[in-house]
Amino acid sequence: MTRAKTGIPGFDALVDGGLPRGVSTMVVGPTGSGKSIFGLQYLYKGADLYDEPGVLVTLESRPQEVRRTATTFGWDLSRLEADGKFVIIDAASNRAGLPTSEKHALRRGFDLATLAEEIYTVVNESGAKRLTIDSFSALNLPSTTPSVVRGEVLRISALLNELGLTSLLISDTPPNGVLSQPTAGHHVAQGLVILHLDMTNLSLRRSIVVWKMRHTSHSLRWHELTIEGDGIHIGDPLT
Predict the structure, then answer these.
(1) How far is Cα 114 from Cα 60, in angstroms, rounded to an integer?
(2) What is the secondary structure of 53-70 as a DSSP string?
(3) CA nearest 211: which of 23, 4, 25?
(4) What angle do CA 54, 154, 208 make, to 5 degrees?
(5) pLDDT tens readout for residues 37-74
(6) pTM of the entire predicted model
(7) Contact present, 206 and 196 (Cβ < 8 Å)
(8) Of 19, 29, 35, nearest to 165 (Cα)?
(9) What are the helix and strand counts (H, E) for the chain?
(10) Which among 1, 5, 8 is positioned nearest to 51, based on CA atoms?
(11) Is there a contact between 53 and 45 (Cβ–Cβ < 8 Å)?
């Protein structure tokens, strides 16, 4: 099993050296837990350190917001975009009913079929090896129908796997809860990483656990997650 190094300090040691290539992993957590930064850092470091082009499908933050966020960590997305190593698919503007000047965007209405077509085109043009969808929750899948959710997650995962992508699907959980039981969609993904945000001694603490990861051994312990000036770092196991 070949591995895709994430470029997130401390994380690869939790999954036997990196994410299994060609599979999709859901990264789940509440607002503020760091999941969007996790997905962006995975793409940026992949392109910058490992020469693996990446695609970000943004459904909630508009591309300029993403680029501004990146600069706070010293990540120059514009340079990678100019080199063809980083591509943003703007689906957020369409969902918000706003115009966009981005080269790659959904302009003919929003649905899964249109999104899949755009991903297919961009990946083939760019030779991308990595992809992040942020956030998968914004696809507004009918969560009251588990069989439909499983089917849609499976359909998207199958497309990404067919394209040979090692993908992260960012997803939300309630702001005050740890995921106690995987949902129908989580069961379909080959990997599931959970981020948590709780209050300890009157301060917020972030943590992370690899809930499942097919085709590899992995840590089952919660670890400290910190967001520093250069991005996310994974620290020691929590006690």
Answers:
(1) 17
(2) -EEEEESSS-HHHHHHHH
(3) 25
(4) 60
(5) 999 999 999 999 999 999 999 999 999 999 999 999 99
(6) 0.91
(7) yes
(8) 19
(9) 7, 11
(10) 5
(11) no
